[in-house]
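Please fill in the sequence for the structure shown.

STRUCTURE ENCODING:
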């Protein structure tokens, strides 16, 4: 004997006629809705190269970082090369923050030399530290053999709605750093955008 389906609503009224009016969701509508949610405005980045020797290698590093950022879904607003002076580094970072970029990526100036001032300049701008990102960069740098990456004093954090990350200056550190950094930065930007809505 077939089991009878109960079609009464919460008040005990017959609701069988309402079941006939329910349409299944349109697959095209659901797909379009998912696509709409996954489409986001391009994320913007600024690259800050910190060096006392603005030569061809600084330009090469800048180009590499720009290419990797584009591959990671960022629009690169620009790349600036600044001297290893705390005030110059800070000014370049603040330009990105005030300009509303999602990421300021500094490259260089993270070692232990007397002119390595990038972490100090960055710390002066940050509202919040996010140490896990810098730690992930050091760990991945060690794994890939980028000595300057694993011994970097680089820091990471947030200023306003901008993520700021220090990366060591070798090509290996930049290449590996971007592979490690990409999902972390996208996650942080997502969080910042949700909190500002």
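FILLED IN BY: designer on duty
SEQUENCE:
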């Amino acid at each position: 004997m077939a089991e009878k389906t109960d079609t009464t609503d919460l008040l005990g009224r017959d609701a069988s006629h309402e079941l006939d009016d329910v349409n299944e969701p349109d697959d095209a509508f659901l797909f379009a809705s998912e696509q709409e949610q996954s489409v986001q405005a391009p994320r913007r980045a600024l690259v800050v190269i910190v060096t006392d020797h603005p030569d061809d290698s600084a330009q090469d590093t800048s180009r590499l970082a720009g290419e990797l950022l584009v591959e990671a879904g960022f629009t690169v607003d620009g790349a600036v090369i600044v001297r290893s002076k705390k005030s110059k580094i800070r000014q370049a970072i603040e330009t990105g923050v005030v300009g509303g970029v999602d990421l300021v990526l500094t490259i260089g100036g993270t070692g232990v030399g007397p002119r390595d001032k990038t972490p100090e300049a960055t710390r002066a701008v940050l509202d919040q530290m996010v140490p896990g990102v810098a730690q992930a960069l050091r760990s991945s740098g060690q794994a890939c053999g980028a000595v300057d990456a694993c011994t970097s004093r680089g820091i990471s954090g947030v200023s306003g709605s901008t993520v700021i990350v220090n990366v060591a200056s070798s090509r290996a550190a930049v290449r590996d750093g971007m592979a490690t950094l990409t999902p972390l930065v996208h996650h942080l930007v997502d969080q910042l955008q949700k909190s500002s809505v």
